Amino acid sequence: MSEISYKSPLAATLSGRFADKAAIAWGRLRDHATAIALGLVVPLGVLALWSYAVQQQWLAEQILPSPLLVWETFFDLLATGELQRELLVSLGRVVAGLVAGGGLGLVAGLSFGLWRPLDIYVSPTIRAICLVPSLGWLPFFMLMFGIGEALKIILIAKTCFLPLMVASYEGLRNRPRKYDEVAAVLELPWATRVGIVIWPSILPSILTGLRLALSKGWKALILVEMISSAAGIGYLMMWGRKAFQLDVVFATIIVIGLVGWLLDWALLKSQMRATGWSFKAVG
Amino acid sequence: MSDTVERPETGLFWKALLLPAALIALWAAADAAGWSNRDLFVSPLQVVQSAIAGFADGSLSGATAATLLRALAGWIIGAGAGLLVGTLIGISGLARGLFNPTINSLRQIALFAWIPLLSAWFGNGETMKITLIALGAFFPMALGAQAGCQNVPEGWREVGKVLELSRRDTLRSIILPAAMPSIVAGAELSLNVAWLGTFGAEYLIGTGYINGMGDGLGAYLAAAREYARMDQVLLGVLFLGLIGVTLDRLVIGFSRKAIPWHRH
Amino acid sequence: MAQALSTRAPATEPEIGDVVGSVEIRNVSKTFRVKDREVHALDDVSLSIRPREFISIVGLSGCGKSTLLRFLAGLDTPDKGTITVDGAAIAGPSLKRGIVFQDHRLLPWLSVEKNIGLALRTVLGTAAEKAARVAELIDLVGLSGFESALPHQLSGGMSQRASIARGLAPRPPLLLLDEPLGALDALTRARLQDELLQIWQQEQSTVIMVTHDVEEAIVLSDRVIVMQPRPGRVRRIVDVPGQRPRRRSDPDFVAARAEIADLLET
Ligand SMILES: Nc1ncnc2c1ncn2[C@@H]1O[C@H](COP(=O)(O)OP(=O)(O)OP(=O)(O)O)[C@@H](O)[C@H]1O
Ligand SMILES: [Mg+2]
Question: Per the UniProt record, which residue ranges are transmembrane (chain B) (predicted)?
């Protein structure tokens, strides 16, 4: 047992380090707890006011359902599988639109950024078309493509096109020129330049564009589904409104927010990973 | 400054117009040759005629004015509140802890998803629309102001410390100017959302899916689609775009004035 | 009129006339952690500075000169050791310890005039007095005609001069200069060295200046602190002999320069 009780200077510093880390971890835990407690003050206050308002019948039950009812409805929707079904429909539409529109946007942005004549003759027209928000095109698309599945995908694609076009274009144009100069001075070959200087410097911009596209696409989808659809989460919400079941409306609003947040969070995570990689590539 | 060097607008302007001109010519030719589906493809001339008609009877100009006013009113309310709240959250740790999680959660909800709820509470009138627009305008502005106030480079804060500036002076001379680019970006985005939100609300209500019609460009377009009037649809879309661009230009011009030290 | 404005704003603070910037630095250490790596920026540095002394600090890049000045300015605190100014511990930044940053740190949204004026915001005095002080300083650093220019319209050296003017504006009894003349051409530099000496004598302030220019250190200071990096320590304190103005050809000057250059090289 003597080996264990014997404290070498190294072991002493190690245990010191450990104590340090424990203290830091404890401090972090406490900070988190404080943050959560603070952050809960407002929502809990609102919830309390809401319950009180329902209890006092300030508003009709139809207009303001009780929080409990919303909670129950949410689980009902989950249990019957209705929520998952509608959500899946919506997500499928977003992904299809994002892939089609975002891919085109990326290609367009890179070609405008790399080939000047295209930028001079074509891009102003595309930009002008994009200046009308995609929702503005909705009536036009409805006349052109009817109100079927194609309408939704095309509208989302149109929505996702612009952010990626702008992101890749601006990423190409606005990347710091000083690194170009460094590369030129170092006489790096073309391939190395693209790989080490250009690509990493536009990647963050493109990923940001992707996040923007996804969040815009999701939001646009909700509106189309509210206006013309027989499926999807937006439809479910609209159905709740028309049937004056505001508990359904509340539940779907929360789901819409949650899904939007999750999508963005997932992309942000991968963006961080990718951007970390790109920093390593630069260094 | 570098902008004017890189993009001499006068020379490029005509080149930029070539493609649209060609497209319109093609469109007119296709129409003249009778290739197109008469119901959907109206001639450019028809669009111009309905524009004139729209202005003559005031339907188009009235709709545009209504939308514009509504968007601006909602924007001023929402962005004003956003600026206040964002600045507060940006400079006060306590306020950040209290409100940031709530704001960040609410921000995730798509703007139009509020419509069913708001319409149940406020009806389909002006109150509901302005509330919706203000709600949409609030978040980008609050976010911009917060990010700006929070990300003031430490070096500039230190200048305030060594010069012993009061809290008010620090806010006025250091934090707000340093945050200005971010605030302006927030205002720009916020106006954009307000404009879009106005149109969306008008359109959604105008489609009659929620009882009642309303006015504005959104309602104009909804009606045009209902009666399959492609000329009016195109006209409405064109106006929507034109005014959106004009608003954007105005804000950008203003932001150049507001932050002359900032490179655009 | 030199006394028209001063930093004697709050009545509770000690009067500036009583004590003028004596500094005691005792066993000061500072370690920065950068990604699991420890940088010993300062290690057991002790130094006492008498009132009205002109001190220069020289040393290789990264030996902790700026870090030491930041402690004195109250922008950062040492891990170990104490620093007192006029017998009192430093509680935070104060106008009585003016600092001119290594990077000029002019606020990009304020004109030269307003940047300098910012230093007088909390100082007693009328607007006219303050304006006069600002004008006087602009003249002193040779920026007349650029009063309303924004920092991005200035050259590096001009920005540096504006920043010096801002540091001087409240007449701090202890003036901390971090390579204030680094970005200047030889002529302007020599002129501003003279100005600095004059200001120092006129204001009776204590000056601590970081510089990379050994000759500049000898021309200006009473003592030159030679520091060494990794870990940052005081290598030697060189007393500069002889009356000012000092000539570069004096044997004393040459000897001091040789001594310091030798210390820096090895
Ligand atoms: N905030 C910080 N975080 C991490 N390391 C720091 C920080 N400030 C200083 N250091 C480190 O401390 C050491 C001393 O820095 P300091 O700026 O004091 O050097 P210096 O003597 O002023 O150098 P120079 O002559 O180049 O200005 C450096 O190795 C630097 O990397
Ligand atoms: Mg330094």
Answer: 72-94, 106-124, 130-149, 170-187, 193-212, 233-252
